[in-house]
Amino acid sequence: MVTEALFRSIDQTEPQVTIEFNGQPLDVPAHMTLAAALLAAGVRQTRNTPVSGAPRTAYCMMGVCFDCLVLIDGVSRQACQVRVKPGLRVHTHSPVHIEGDTDA
Amino acid sequence: MTGETIVVGGGLVGLAVAYGLAREGQSVRLLDQGDVAWRAARGNFGLVWVQGKGYGMPAYARWTLGSAAAWPRLAQDLLAETGIDVHLHQPGGFLLCLEEAELAEESRRLHWLRDALGGDYRFEELAPAELRRRLPGVGPDVVGACYCPADGHVNPLLLLRALTMAAQRRGVVLQTGCDVQRIERQGEGYQLTGARQIWLGDRVVLAAGLGNKALATQVGLNVEVTPNRGQILVTERLAPFLSHPTNYVRQTAEGSVQLGDSHEAAGLNDSVSASVVASLAQRAVMCFPRLAGVQLVRAWGALRVLSPDGFPIYQQSRECPGVFAVTCHSGVTLAAAHAFELAPWIIGAARPEVLGAFSDQRFQQVSGEASHGH
Amino acid sequence: MPEQIEVLILGAGPAGMAAALQLKSLGIGVRVLDEQRSPGGQIYREVNNASSARKRLLGADYAAGGETVAAFLASDIDYVPNASVWLIDAERQVHYHVAGQAQVVQAQRILLCCGAYERPMPIPGWTLPGVMTAGAGQILLKSGGQVPAGAVVLAGSGPLLYLLAVQYLQAGVRVKALVDTCTRSDLLSALRYFPAALKGWRQLRKGIGLMHTLRRAGIPWHRGASDLRVEGSGQATALTFETDGRQQRIACDLVLLHQGVVPNTQPSLSISAAHRWDESQMCWVAEQDEWGELSVPGCFIAGDAAGIDGAEAALVQGRVVAVGIALSLQRLSSQAALQHARPLRRTLATYRSVRPFLERLYRPQPALNSPADTTIICRCEEVTAGAIREYAALGCLGPNQTKAFGRCGMGPCQGRQCGLAVTQILAAAHDVSPAEVGYYRIRPPLKPITLAELASED
Asked: What is the pTM of this model?
């Protein structure tokens, strides 16, 4: 869900790129980490906790807390450790699906 | 006479025995070490595993089968007494093989066991096509598997917590931060000495894992246990995909996947090594290729408690009647047997026939590497 | 056969860069592994990409850091950015991955310069979106020129809060309030260390200058605040707290928390180096000799990872420890090493002279060390303080049994966010010191790594 952004840029020009977020195109600032870019684009929640489903997003911005986990091309990554690239395919984090004897 | 039985060791073996004694109305004090200790109880895979166990000793196969059959009762009682569901699931397990020789050897052992148990031993040998039908997602490098319907798994840490709570609720006094160093006769009973404390009991059960060796010697028992390191990897939580346990890969109820089955004679060293971690990861990806992109979150090493032949020791001291040694490396699988079958014997009844094979005197002719199941 | 190198440095903040430059000047082979994409650590993050306007906003210290970064980049040191170390073994073999490729290197000496991270500050509601750390605010400013768009409250204690508030002012953002947990009693207790702190009067002057700027700007400043809670369902909507016995509530979209930083002990603990509990810094500190060598031979530590002394001290200490490493490699005589180190150690002592004062002044409030039962302590596994107290009652004496019983510390952050809090809660529950309670056993992987990346090592 995209709402009013918690952060804004103080830079004059701010080039944007288009990434894919939960299957939809999303314009985000170009020259920063994905976590910062999602915050700037007004995304307030990037994962639900596995224990209670509580909403979370980036907390420490330095790779320590893991609250900014997202899925990038189906792989769990910390958004604060990934830089924005055009066309990046990002999903709200949830437990990864693989094939087995159980219908997930 | 204090009227108290002291159990030394608060792992899965000690807790199950203490719980079982409390169920029989005994007054029990359990002594456990502090936060930093070897603790095989914290480092296991959670398998309630039957397949292949007891190769070379049918009594162990019977003991294991009995425990697996009694496990639902243990799980139910623990749920009723503590509210904790230990997630026992016994859907049958797969022993995946990545080499033909591995498959052939496992098949040979299972056939041996079936013969030794008079045919009362169910298993199936699965060719790749059938295996893939039952376990979609299994990789092309898996050459086959053996399936046993009695195999299952449980959450071992919830089991630890549930046994602790259940034991406490039945009046077991749990003392942590204790290090028992000496055991000797004291009147009609026994005195245990630690760094700063002394305990007195009518009976003593030594369930201290690797610590049993030093204590057992003091009462004339031969418990020559040695450490065998197992390393386990745990992944991030995944959506449920694997309800059957396998020897190499097991998905927990929380969704994380455990990868294991390594064996090393590393001495008293429970660290994690890069080479074993890499090979466990490689094997997991061979078993389920789609695990390739999954993140490893944590890893640990723990020390199995191995007797010279890998089978349990259940023995009352001859010099010190009333002192018992209880040791095994399958504290999870045998938890039900330990909880339900040992107490009467410890309290004073005749030793159950099935336990006759687990004497401490059987090792005279045995030498060399210990063999063990899973 | 893994690649052999002389010295491997983990971290390219002030300590790592200074040590690398010093070692290079002594003709010793160095490789620096860095999680970031460019040098500077957290304190000088992205300084080499910062415009002059950005540097002016962030202050003179930040800009000065740019010089060290420039020197480092120009020095042709073997610098590996975007590297994630997942295992260090006691024989100094280091496993890391860069761009999905696993690498292994065998070093004669290892230097841990992995810096610090925020002390956990578990208060009700701290896990809500809209709550971040003050450090996160700084990182967003440094690496993206991002400032709060709406109402923001800074809460906790420590100079970083004041620095951030001033930097925001420079950027045209007035924080709605500074909710300071420091009390008069903290100031009075800290005064006994003040005379010794005067040796570091330059640092003190900076701090006083910051507070003066904030006061002049009329930023609402609530002192002696207690019982902090974040309100909101799904996201933060307000911070409530108590001052002078009165309940207060400040509506806001963003709460930035801070109560100091603590050494990143994950790498040093993972190699089983000995650590001690430092009662003044209220955290675990690796045991190290006068050259920064850990109890694990051949492994050294410098910078905030060795104990919180700040960036300027780290620049100096990095050089001292580099001299120690050179000595240990017998590339310097004992006499030459002492000679090299003497003036550096004197400078270091000056920087350190303010620490006892600052540490006492900004000491976390006791109440913050005993959170209410319903407060989440382990963010990853959502284990509450109450649950931890239950496990203590069941006989768990330390964090490892507690972890086994309750899963705290088992999540992806591996105890970085909860470890200190869990230790404190258990210490209070058993009425013993944190030193007696101990800490989590830290194991590899230090950072997550995919199974494919792991398998590619073989």
From this structure: 0.95
- What are the angstrom distances between the C-alpha of B309 and each of B55, B230, C250? 11, 17, 69
Residue C28 CA to chain centroid, in angstroms? 28
Q: How far is A99 from chain B (nearest CA, A)?
A: 5
Query: What string of H, E and C letters represents the secondary structure of C94-158?
Result: EEEEECCEEEEEEEEEEEECCCEEECCCCCCCCCCCCEEEHHHHHHHHHHHCEEECCCEEEEEEC
Distance of alpha carbon B75 from alpha carbon C355, whole angstroms: 55
* Helix C311-328 / helix C14-25 crossing angle, nearest 10 deg: 40
Average pLDDT over chain B, rounded to whole? 94
Question: How do residues C232-276 score in pLDDT, each as one tens digit?
Answer: 999 999 999 999 999 999 999 999 999 999 999 999 999 999 999
Q: What is chain A's mean pLDDT, rounded?
A: 93
Q: Could you please report the per-residue DSSP string of B268-322?
A: S-----HHHHHHHHHHHHHH-GGGGGPEEEEEEEEEEEE-TTSS-EEEE-SSSTT
List, in order, residues 6 or more apart from B209 with CB less than 8 Å away: B9, B11, B13, B38, B39, B40, B225, B303, B305, B327
| Residues from chain B contacting residue A76 (CB–CB below 8 Å) | 236, 294-295
CB pairs under 8 A between A and B: 59
In C, minimum Cα distance to A51 occurs at: C381
Determine, for residues B164 and C394 on separate chains, whether the beta-carbon distance falls below 8 Å: yes
Average pLDDT rounded to a whole number, residues A26-35:
95
Q: What percent of chain B has pLDDT over 90?
A: 92
Residue C245: Cβ within 10 Å count: 6
Assembly ipTM? 0.96
**How far from the centroid of its chain's Cα atoms is residue C210's Cα?**
21
Chain A segment 36-55 residues within 8 A of C by beta carbon are 36-37, 39-40, 44-45, 49, 51-52, 54-55
Q: Decide: C292 and C321 in contact? Cβ < 8 Å.
A: yes
Phi and psi, residue A63, nearest 5°: 85, 10
As a whole number, mean pLDDT of residues B148-171 equals: 97
Instruction: For residue C443, give both structure tokens.
Output: 């194991």
pLDDT in tens, C360-374: 999 999 888 899 999
Determine contact, residues A19/A66, Cβ cutoff 8 Å: no
Find, among B86, B17, B47, the residue nearest to B259 by Cα: B47
